[in-house]
Amino acid sequence: MISVRANKLAGYLTGTTTRPVKVDDKEKWLSEDALVMSWLLHSIEPALSPQYMMMESAKDIWDAISRQYSQKNNYAQAYEIRKESREMSQGGLSLAAYYSNLSHLWQQLDAYRTHRPSIPTELITF
Q: Pfam families recorded for this chain (predicted)?
């Protein structure tokens, strides 16, 4: 995802960068879409990628992966992560290692939330 954003190609995943009608613009669109497709295919487990290889566009791949692997509203998994974070103790870990492990659990929990803060003060709260 970092490469997609760094190259300003996120529109190929969201659908805001649509296939152009004019022939002159099609070559660039096809090239950039293929680049995003290759990044997506190379970022997933090799055993899983063949089912996505023949899709028409990066957006098609992105949507299919999202439908298949989305964890939104997975309340059981969110419960397990909350439970694990409550039961976690520093034990023999350094403070930095303990905080890192706890932060990782919080990030996982954030992935299950449907509310995505967009206001800077909310980002601090969440």
A: Retrotran_gag_2
Q: What distance lies between CA 13 and its chain's CA centroid?
A: 11
The CA-CA-CA angle for residues 29, 41, 56, to 5°, reads 45
Tens digit of each residue's pLDDT (9 = 90 or more) over 99-111: 999 999 998 888 7
How far, in whole angstroms, is CA 123 from its chain's centroid? Answer: 18
Q: Give 33: exposed, middle or buried? Use CB within 10 Å, 0-12, 13-18, 19+.
A: buried
pTM listed for this prediction = 0.59
Range 116-122 contact pairs with CB under 8 angstroms and sequence separation of 24 or more: none
The 10 Å Cβ neighbour count of residue 11 is 16
**Number of CB atoms found within 10 A of residue 69's CB:** 9
pLDDT digits (tens, 9 = 90+) for 62-101: 999 888 776 666 778 888 889 999 999 999 999 999 999 9
